[in-house]
Write a structure and sequence with these properties.
A two-stranded antiparallel sheet has the order 1-2. The protein has a two-stranded antiparallel ribbon with strand order 3-4. It has three domains: 2-98, no CATH class; 104-280, no CATH class; 284-377, no CATH class. The termini are far apart. The chain is elongated and about 135 Å long. Helices cover 39% and strands 8% of the residues. Helix 17 (350-357) packs across helix 18. The chain has helices spanning 2-14, 16-41, 44-47, 54-61, 70-73, 78-89, 103-106, 114-117, 131-136, 146-149, 170-177, 190-193, 210-214, 252-262, 298-305, 318-321, 350-357, 362-377, and strands at 121-124, 127-129, 200-202, 205-207, 225-228, 275-280, 330-334, 345-348. The longest helix has 26 residues, at 16-41. By secondary structure, it is mostly helical. It is built from 18 helices and eight strands.
Amino acid sequence: MTTLFRDLFSALKSNVKAIGILTGGLVLLVVLAGLFVKVEISRPSFCENCHYMDPYVRHWKTSGHAEVSCVKCHDYGVTEFVSVALRYVTKTYTMRPKASVRNAKCLADGCHDIASLKEPVQYRKNIYFNHTVHLEKPLRGEKLRCTSCHNQIVQYDEAVATEHMEVNDKACFVCHFKDAGEGEAITGCDACHGMPKEPVTHAGFTFDHGPYLKLSVECKQCHTRIVQGDGSVPEGKCFSCHVERSREQYSREQLHAIHVTGQGIDCFKCHTDIRHGNFEMASALEIRCEDCHLRQHNQPKQLYMGIGGKDTLDMPSAMFTAQVSCVGCHTHLTPEGEPMSHQEKKEAQRASCVMCHGDGYDLVFDNWLSGERTVLKE
């Protein structure tokens, strides 16, 4: 054994130059291969080599980032390449790659900068967005990332957005409407829409918000249903990613710190969708007297609608043409109830006039009541 090692050492010593050249060649080959891989994976065309990347690349080519290479935003280097290659060879790769984009990448030199984001930008008609408010401090207990809103990576919701990194406004709706009251937003309607300044047309009549806003009439008085869906997290959703882990183990803040702030996971990996719009408006044409009474009283309805009169033209009430329903004025719940139906009865009150029209309009109620009594006596 001693002779064997002596002969081996002697052979190495006599060929040290050749061994050095061979070792240097191997090191150089590895370095060149690494450089080749680094340069090659920086090309967007490299990403197209995998068939499941086709939709991602297609959206990228039509986006505002089409001139920006993939690795400029995504953390992907030689180490990640080797890892993916091993998973491919062992057939353990996933068809849904996770590609997180850190805020530091978005705010790197030559890209976006904080100074340019301090000015509000127009997102939709009459809707302006302030990046600083959303990025600099936690909102509802969570710190957002750029991709919390710019999460339209690929085929997520073609009805919302079709470009790579475009804003998916359903993410806005989860934060603004989840756990809010009926017809309400967590931040209030004016946080996004501002105060309406121009008259609008609805159901054939023109409406000016101004006088009602001055009286602090709430939006939900007319905009009765503005969302569809509740943004809930279905039971068992955690198990689609985790094994034997329940959300009950963590607080809401901890869950969002881990998944949103730390991992940049899209809201809709967990939450169901929320849609926002004018899905239902208060309307006099939708009067349902059975909401208050068991009996149908057609004559008061016809009087309010201004129809059914004898020897006179149809003359609807001004309140009816303004789309005010019965309960817009009949707001007072009396304890006596209806004598025949034994239901609670809602009466109109002077305060109902003031609530929408302002001080002094309660006199109109008195004049109307006095006039009605005079007509009935005659």
